[in-house]
């Protein structure tokens, strides 16, 4: 009996140790280099990134006490990265976090869970320089130490990191080590552009989220700050000249209720239309944008022909982010998210 109890206890202990072998999220990268370098945190600053990890990605089977999160440089592409100073703040959440980057919101707050917490108040960091090791991966170099432990009972997590610098910086080439994990099914939706923009000729527009269950968006670049931008969806493909070398490429079946005023020289304007219903599979819609300058001059984009699909990808890890680059600016506390990535940062959880 005693021998049996001893063996049972030994089995439990060794099983527990085996389960705790990997301390990274995503799991399994303690001594293995990731397949992607993530630029959206330290490469360009200021920046903000929300990193999402599913239960499958974390490998957690029960409650997890998180005291600190560590980052390391990517060793796949570049040989070195510079030292620089910045401030960093980290928030975390786990309950009811967003689970798909294509339904993630540009409002950072809406992607968080209901147990959102400031994990680490804003602190000043001296990010160290690094060189590529002879044998990857690189060592853990940046510790995001919590002001108090975060107890995670939901087996998934959102890590929301804000990086502050006084000016727009290009920290070549401080990429954070990262990886990806996703699987896909269904018929892929797509869009095609047609026609020619006017005033200017590179007033380009795009579409994303054109599959069932995704958040459908159209966005454009007017190439001018201070423009008032309109967006609409149509049911017909048109080619109607409206003078001045400009063309109406679709009828106005649905006008977006909220015009956007551009604030950067790229003239970026984003329009969210809502979640794509299942009944829309196979339907074709059209989109176009127009802008009014401060001098009341009109600009017109090309047209987009969008075919709705039901293609779905399950992302075990992904990121939602924004940053400043070149002449642009970014405020991590006030400005919205702009992009998403199927890659996620590899972190060591301690």
Summarize the entry for a quick read.
The protein has 350 residues and is mainly β. The chain is built from 3 helices and 31 strands.
Which features does this protein show?
mainly beta, 3 helices, 350 residues, Immunoglobulin-like, 2 domains, 6-stranded antiparallel sheet
Task: Reconstruct the topology from this structure.
Layout: H1 2-19, E1 24-25, E2 36-38, E3 44-45, E4 47-53, H2 55-58, E5 64-71, E6 80-81, E7 84-93, H3 108-111, E8 117-127, E9 130-131, E10 142-152, E11 157-164, E12 169-170, E13 176-180, E14 182-185, E15 190-194, E16 204-208, E17 215-221, E18 228-234, E19 237-243, E20 246-250, E21 254-255, E22 260-261, E23 268-275, E24 284-292, E25 298-300, E26 303-307, E27 312-315, E28 317-323, E29 339-341, E30 343-345, E31 347-349
Antiparallel strand pairs: 1-31, 2-13, 3-12, 4-11, 4-28, 5-10, 5-31, 6-9, 7-8, 7-11, 13-30, 14-27, 15-26, 16-17, 17-23, 18-21, 18-22, 18-24, 19-20, 24-25, 24-26, 28-29
* Tally of helical segments: 3
Radius of gyration: 23 Å
Write down the domain tally: 2
DSSP strand tally: 31
Separation, N- and C-terminal Cα atoms:
38 Å
Structural class: mainly beta
Helical fraction equals under 10%
Low-confidence stretches: 1-19
Summed over residues and divided by their number, the pLDDT gives a mean of: 94
Strand content: over 45%
- Biggest beta sheet attributes: 7 strands, antiparallel
Shape: globular
